[in-house]
Amino acid sequence: MMDSDDGLKVLLADDHGMILEMIDMYLSRVPDIHLTTAKTLDKALEHIEAGESFDIVVLDLNMPGMGGSAGVTKVKKRLPDCPVAILTGEVSSQGVRDLIDVGTDGIVLKTTPLKTLVNAIRFMAEGEQFFPKELMFQIFPSETAKTDTPLSPKEQLVLSYLAEGMSNRQIASRLSLAEPTIKMHVRSVCVKLRCKNRTQAVIAAQSQGLV
Fold this sequence. Notes:
CATH architecture of the largest domain: 3-Layer(aba) Sandwich
Distance between the termini: 28 Å
Strand content: 5-15%
Largest sheet: 5 strands, parallel
CATH class of the largest domain: Alpha Beta
Helix content: 40-55%
Low-confidence stretches: 142-148
Number of strands: 5
Radius of gyration: 17 Å
Mean pLDDT: 86
Number of helices: 10
CATH topology of the largest domain: Rossmann fold
Shape: globular
Strand order of the largest sheet: 2-1-3-4-5
CATH superfamily of the largest domain: Response regulator
């Protein structure tokens, strides 16, 4: 969980120099995000083992030393309470399952707009999970079953912000509501869409044209 006083501390490891530089340049304009970069998993682990603190770690799936989901396990072993996300151009269905099995908190595709990447990072740093709908359709197709239960206008609005990758805190701020109220709306949305969590609710809503 991020410390609001110090801002959000992100460790990003990617061996693709252009991507690393592009993300670094974009995040440098976001005042409350502090980015540390590395080009290999070993370099990322050096930052962690040096005692540096992070609110979220983002790892390129195919960089040197990763070994797929094994790289996530190495980071989780050293930072058990820190969200760990994967940045990748593509990943197989089995690869997604393996990443979920080791506790990966999210997968961000390299085709994702930088604004969405920032929202996804904030989302995961708040303790939520972030997985692209096209990947989740492959893994949980049965969770997108349609429902005839309508959403209220406020629930529809909350759902639209969830689809943008916003956290409960961000939605509460946007709507000038208390965070527990947003949590209740999210819970109601999940119930009405017959989904287990907000990630699957967004996927179901997108498949039904609700967002």
